[in-house]
# Entry
Amino acid sequence: MYEILFPTPHFPDQPMSDAFNTPTSVDPRLLEVLVCPVTRGPLTYDRAANELISRGAKLAFPIREGVPIMLAEDARPLD
# Structure
């Protein structure tokens, strides 16, 4: 039987974390492309909470295993 191996994405300028080899921060190029799904406005990265913040929608979108979860129903409301 054959085993298919996919290369793990690696951003050379970013340190890696945990066993999943996920970046410890969000690639700035990703932030240039991603927008809030509610307002279509910009997002900022909160490193301490590992979330993408939409100030316009007052929502925080989680990042799980290096993948931004851009669903409004999964977002945490901001105070």
Summary: Residues 28-33 form the longest helix (6 residues). Residues 43 and 54 are 5 Å apart (CA to CA). The domain at 37-79 is CATH 2.20.25.10 (N-terminal domain of TfIIb).
